[in-house]
Design goal:
about 425 residues, alpha/beta, TIM Barrel, Lyase, Ornithine Decarboxylase, Chain A, domain 1, nine-stranded mixed sheet, eight-stranded parallel beta barrel, 20 strands, binds pyridoxal-5'-phosphate
Length: about 425
């Protein structure tokens, strides 16, 4: 069985008593040490590091990470509003979005930065703010990701402006008298320093075509090992190689480029655990399976159902007696056959049992590596389960409630009953 990362078994038991489950717990020390690792990213001519807030947008987490020195990457106008509400200075927020914000004008007036991700977006921005500076997101034609669903570069990804359309970008910029001072690529380069260097050289060759660019963002996508057999990105090793590429570019083109990176996963993935309680243990006979049923599932953590993502699972028993081990499939509480926590690696359709001490109703099952794209990306309110609460474990070990459990009334508060029922 896997092991707990930042909580002790006794902490888990007392949190279950004090706050109830399901519940996300985040660790301040881990959040801050990951932030420090990103802020120490080697660079030749300056660095801005952003937190891709879509990975975990809870206010207290944004506060913790921005207090450490990180800026914000927002994936929509609403995310930018959410960060502003938390107190992040507008000039520290950059929007890189699939959908042009409805209130783009207000956000830009407030001082938020904008990264145009399509010709249409660039045109719309130019019409509103002619004669200003802008950044553009380019798809350099290279992609990397753990599955087709997470691939964000290359010909099968819609993100950014396809690199062959740069002449059109330049023409639109000229029409609106825009200066393109920033270039951005986010292809999710993973843990291999070689892939990062390849992305950096490709991106720099594109920057060469934009004479006014002073900042190059290489996006996020620094891989984090959740499972034992996985490898985390070594940001020092990656940064050291990229630094050389920036120096070579400066020597050749006389431009000392400012570097930006904007990880999400790397900052928060292993800073979060989802604690759930075992509600039932059932089986389907001698040729079938044993099942553990949780009081959480795709309403809190969608990644296993969506991409067959693997998370460490730790059973914390109520008593400390030793129990015989058994193989179980772990399933969530939704009436949905896809709500499983033990998909087969690389195959969301398949199932692969895992070994646990004998499970009993009332035990805790801790789902580790649940900081990134879990709480912020749920199948929220499916089966009318309320959004769960969140707690931050401070450096002193004190647990602070940072998001309340949703009340049932909040689930249906915006619904309007018909006054007349037709039969
Ligand atoms: C999601 C996203 C990121 C963060 O990606 P991770 O894989 O979580 O590091 C960074 N930049 C942009 C534009 C994104 O959309």
């Amino acid at each position: 069985m896997d092991s707990l990362s930042f909580l002790t078994e006794n902490e888990v038991r007392s949190i279950q008593q004090q706050f109830g489950t399901p519940l996300f717990v985040y660790d301040q020390a881990t959040l801050e040490s990951q932030a420090d690792a990103v802020l120490a990213f080697p660079n030749a001519y300056g660095l801005t590091a952003r937190f891709a807030m879509k990975a975990l947008p809870t206010a207290a987490v944004i506060q913790t990470l921005t207090a450490r020195g990180l800026h914000i990457d927002a994936s929509s106008g609403y995310e930018a509003q959410r960060a502003l509400r938390v107190g992040v200075p507008a000039s520290h927020i950059q929007i890189t979005a699939q959908e042009i914000p409805v209130n783009l004008k207000e956000l830009i007036h407030a001082g938020v930065l904008y990264n145009a991700c399509s010709i249409n977006q660039l045109n719309a921005y130019g019409a509103l703010f002619p004669g200003t500076e802008i950044s553009v997101r380019i798809n350099p034609g290279l992609g990397s990701g753990h599955s087709n669903r997470t691939n964000v570069g290359g010909p099968s990804a819609s993100f950014g402006i396809w690199h062959e359309h740069i002449p059109e970008v330049l023409a639109v910029a000229e029409r609106h008298n825009l200066r393109i001072t920033g270039m951005h690529t986010h292809i999710g380069s993973g843990s291999d320093p070689g892939a990062w260097v390849q992305c950096a050289t490709l991106s720099l060759s594109i920057v060469a075509q934009f004479p006014d660019v002073t900042t190059l963002s290489l996006g996020g996508g620094f891989k984090v090992a959740r499972m034992d057999h996985e490898v985390s990105a070594d940001v020092q090793a990656i940064g050291t190689k990229i630094k050389e590429e920036f120096k070579a570019f400066a020597a050749e083109h006389g431009r000392e480029l400012h570097l930006e990176v904007e990880p999400g996963t790397f900052l928060v993935a292993n800073a979060g655990v989802l604690l759930s309680t075992i509600m039932d243990v059932v089986d389907t006979g001698a040729d079938g399976y044993n099942f553990i049923k949780l009081n959480a599932g795709m309403t809190e953590i969608l990644r296993p159902s969506m991409y067959g993502a693997q998370h460490p699972l730790v059973l914390v028993s109520q008593d400390e007696e030793t129990r015989q081990e058994k193989d179980y499939l772990v399933v969530g509480h939704c009436c949905e056959s896809g709500d499983v926590l033990t998909p087969e690696p690389g195959n969301p359709e398949g199932l692969l049992p895992r070994n646990f001490p004998e499970a009993k109703v009332g035990d805790v099952l801790a789902i580790e590596g649940a900081g990134a794209y879990c709480s912020g990306m749920p199948a929220k309110n499916y089966n009318a389960f309320p959004e769960c609460a969140e707690v931050l474990r401070g450096r002193d070990g004190v647990m602070t409630l940072i998001r309340k459990r949703q009340t049932p009334e909040q689930i249906w508060q915006n619904e309007i009953l018909l006054l007349v029922l037709f039969t």
